[in-house]
Amino acid sequence: MRLTLPWLTLAILAAAAAGMVLPSLGNLLGWEPGAADWRLATCQLAHWDANHALWDGLAVAILGWWAETRWPGRIRFTLLAALVLIPLAVHQFHGPIPFRGLSGVACALAAAGAVCTWRSARDDLDRIIAGGLLAGLGLKILYELSTHEALFATAATWQPVPIAHLAGLGIGILIATLPTFATTPQTEPT
Q1: Is 84 within 8 Å of 159 (Cβ atoms)?
Q2: Does residue 187 belong to any structural domain of this protein?
Q3: I need a surface site. Which of 15, 104, 106, 138 has the fewest CB within 10 A?
Q4: What pLDDT, in 10s, does the model give residues 42-95?
């Protein structure tokens, strides 16, 4: 199996890291009521604090590296769709609330990777892993919806937005099931 560099995952992580290291940039990227509409397209690159950025960055790094190297076209489409559609879903369902963070993108990566794994499964173990990942993601979202608390990050100064995770789940599943992309992992040309 030939793996490709997960360049889009790395670019997103670099932009998010820049927003964390340079607080003025992070504040410019984040979205809050009254902010310019273009900031809806950048708000996921900003984070509320280092703990928030660490958990989101770790999840996106692991899931993005895994998924983008195996299904590059489908996962890059998932990443771009998640960056655009998740903030719109948050804005639609929550109204004008402050919003930052890549956790919804991580959920989209997990969902797309799990569905692609299921679709390209070589054996039952692949299906068990894919099903377990989707079930775990679903349980995480249910926990956050019912408790209004983040499962991993410590939200002492900010409010988690589970609709972002639910939107990411839906985006990942939808794009992973589209028939226009190959679902088998990249392989060496023969």
Answers
A1: no
A2: no
A3: 138
A4: 999 999 999 899 999 999 999 999 999 999 999 999 999 999 999 999 999 988
The domain that holds 126 is classified in CATH as: 1.20.1540.10
Assigned domain for 148 exists: yes
Give the Cα-Cα-Cα angle 32, 43, 36 (nearest 5 degrees).
Answer: 50
Q: Which residues contact 104 (CB under 8 A, 6 or more apart)?
A: 44, 82, 86, 90, 161, 164, 165, 167, 168
3-class state of residue 31 by DSSP: strand
Give the burial class of 38: count Cβ atoms within 10 A of its Cβ; 0-12 exposed, 13-18 middle, 19 or more buried.
exposed
Number of domains in the chain: 1
Q: Domain range spanning residue 25?
A: 7-177
Q: Which two tokens stand for residue 41?
A: 């397209």
Specify whether the CB–CB gap between 65 and 79 falls below 8 A.
no
Q: How many residues does the chain have?
A: 190
Which distant-in-sequence residues (6+ apart) come within 8 Å of 182 by Cβ? 71, 73, 74
Task: Single out the residue of 61, 63, 72 nearest to residue 2, CA to CA.
Answer: 72
| The model's pTM | 0.90
Closest CA to 71 of 167, 168, 6, 165: 6
186 located within any domain: no
Within-domain flag for 1? no
